[in-house]
Design a protein that fits this description.
47% of the residues lie in helices and 15% in strands. The chain has helices at 2-7, 12-21, 27-42, 44-54, 61-76, 81-91, 94-109, 111-119, 123-126, 131-141, 143-153, 170-176, 212-218, 235-243, 259-269, 284-290, 326-341, 364-373, 387-390, and strands at 159-163, 181-182, 189-192, 204-206, 225-228, 249-254, 274-278, 297-303, 345-355, 378-385, 395-401. A seven-stranded mixed β-sheet has the order 7-6-5-8-9-11-10, with helices on both faces. Strands 2-3-1-4 form a four-stranded antiparallel β-sheet, with helices on one face.
Length: 407
């Protein structure tokens, strides 16, 4: 999985899903493999620094993948040293075994020195964040908050879930899953523990409580006509349908390649009022084929594609897929999609623009630019979730109202 991630452009969660679908590993082995894969990606810079400290000569990428696995076990999660070294050496082809063995054994002998040396490195090394992101967050939030965010991103993420009240009441859910921990911030969300974290069924949908911000601002009501314009994988659509009590009409749209996940999740959750439509908002022909009617929706949610900087604790490799130019290109794309979707909102309706980004250029700036060009919209409310303040993933949501024309 590490080699596949390194040579391609796939995201880690997609690689995990496909790989595990083709294996018959026991649950404990899957959990350990997942810990190693995500743990290495979460600590790439730190592990590469350690490799550089332990060997002056260059190490090829094949050997580096293996060494990262071994050093993650011996230096960070402290797997039994003998087992970690033996199994890591076994992964290497014969030509590399003596090299891998020598480096890992030196790491064990010099562990205290390595720990001290790591502690003296800048945040980009200690927390394995791209330097440009650390600098960006320091400018935006200040030194201490930027460090707090780096620490947050390197913590394993708890598993939260929304109780699917289309299928089960909160009271019945808590009787059925007594180990689930209630979340005071939102009574429909719980923290799952133990074997419950590996379940997938109609009773709940796994996502962070911060995802509820946008749907709360949207406030869809039974019998309304509601549009989820970027619906995949379907979690917010499921939440909207529950708020609508499965009444009215919900249109869930996304690119054709993503609709199977939307369809599967909505069926599992018992959503009965949804129509699923394929559309690519960056393709004019695709939009025309979808035949949406202007001023036809009471409420619209645009959960826009974004940099994911608010959810890096969960999408551990997102940091390595970003470049400074993305923070110029992404807002242009977000504004373009917002402007294409806005005409479908009826006068008197509300459009919620949301992201899982912490970056003002993807959030407040996009909203401000939209309002400067679209005079028949006004901003009525915004909500944010900040990890260091709220204890959940980062999120942004803004509600844009389209007043009924007077006279």
């Amino acid at each position: 999985m590490l080699r596949r991630w390194r040579v391609g452009r796939e995201f880690a969660d997609a690689i995990v899903a496909e790989t595990f679908a083709q294996t018959d590993l026991a649950a404990a082995d899957r959990a350990f493999a997942l810990e190693l894969f995500y743990g290495v990606l979460r600590n790439l810079s730190l592990l590469d620094f350690c490799i550089g400290e332990l060997r002056a000569q260059p190490v090829d990428n094949f050997a580096r993948d293996i060494l990262r696995l071994g050093l993650y076990q011996t230096q960070i999660i402290e797997t039994a040293a003998h087992a970690a070294v033996f199994e890591t050496v076994e992964l290497a082809p014969p030509r590399l075994r003596s090299l891998v063995n020598a480096i890992l054994r030196r790491a064990l002998r010099e562990k205290d020195r390595l720990t001290t040396s790591v502690s003296e490195q800048p945040a980009a090394v200690r927390f394995s964040e791209p330097q440009f992101l650390v600098e960006k967050w320091t400018r935006q939030f200040g030194d201490e908050t930027a460090l707090e965010l780096c620490r947050w991103n390197n913590q394993p993420a708890p598993v939260y879930a929304r109780i699917n009240d289309l299928k089960i009441s909160p009271a019945d859910f808590r009787r059925k899953y007594p180990n689930a921990e209630s979340i005071s911030a939102n009574l429909l969300f719980v923290r799952l523990r133990g074997t419950e974290t590996s379940l997938t069924n109609e009773d709940f949908y796994i996502h962070d409580p911060s995802t509820a911000l946008a749907c709360a601002l949207l406030d869809p009501q039974p019998d309304e006509i509601v549009f989820d314009a970027c619906a995949a994988p379907g979690g917010k659509s499921g939440m909207i349908a529950a708020q609508m009590e499965n009444r009215g009409r919900l249109v869930a749209a996304d690119r054709e390649s993503r609709l199977d996940r939307v369809r599967g999740n909505l069926v599992r959750l018992g959503v009965e009022n949804a129509t699923i439509v394929g559309v690519d908002w960056l393709d004019l022909e695709s939009i025309q084929r979808a035949k949406f009617v202007e001023k036809s929706f009471d409420k619209i949610l645009l959960d826009a594609p974004c940099s994911n900087t608010g959810v890096m604790r969960r999408r551990v490799d997102a940091r390595w897929r970003l470049a400074p130019r993305d923070f110029l290109a992404m807002p242009r794309q977000q504004l373009a999609i917002l402007k294409k979707i806005a005409p479908f909102l009826r006068p008197g309706g509300s459009l919620v623009y949301s992201t899982c980004s912490l970056e003002p250029e993807e959030n407040e700036t996009v909203v401000a630019e939209f309002l400067s060009e679209e005079k028949d919209f006004c901003l009525t409310n915004t909500k944010t979730s900040l990890p260091w303040r709220d204890g959940f993933d980062g999120a942004f949501a803004a509600r844009l109202h389209r007043p009924v024309a007077m006279g």
